[in-house]
Amino acid sequence: MNFHELMNKRRSVRGFTERRLTDDEITKLLEAATAAPNACNYQSWHFYVVRGREKINGFVPKIYRGEWFRSAAVVFVVCTDAGQLEARFGGRGADLFAIQDTACAIDHLMLMAAEMGLGSCFVGAFDEDECRRYLNIPDSRRPVALVPVGEPAADTPKRPRKPINEVVTFAGEEE
After folding, report:
1. 3-state SS class at 122
2. Which of 13, 103, 159, 172 has the largest count of CB atoms under 10 Å?
3. How far is 146 from 142, CA to CA, in rounded Å?
4. 16-153 maps to which CATH number?
5. Helices (H), the chain
6. pLDDT digit string (tens) for 127-162?
7. What is the pTM of this model?
8. How does DSSP classify residue 124?
């Protein structure tokens, strides 16, 4: 499958089968995430891999309210450890570059999941403090997103996108 096909295959999946992921599948997803571009190659991310029905069920409803979340085979809690970026770039490094790094890693992880025939969803609406407590995440790391992954329980239709002319502004002269 080429990249164009892959990017059109990826969907935000909110329901998974009972199939568990193998350690090799999880490693492949993490390898994709850690291959992502990042500021100054500081690799300011850290991934918590949450497995097991009991541990995943513990997210609902205190950390995330959606019942569908319980069906995930694994949940990646993607954190930033922005210390180096903040030391070099100040607030912009901590508040922007570090978040951009995690977003790139999440995108790589989700595209790899799609290539592997798995579904995933980028979840940003969660209780960061409860997540930190639940997984004993140190203060130096900030949970940025939850990424549940698993075998999709159903086909998810492609959602419409705005036309290019509504989301793009060209600046400068055409050469």
Report:
1. coil
2. 13
3. 12
4. 3.40.109.10
5. 3-9, 23-34, 53-57, 83-89, 91-92, 98-115, 128-135, 164-167
6. 999 999 999 999 999 999 999 999 999 988 889 999
7. 0.94
8. -
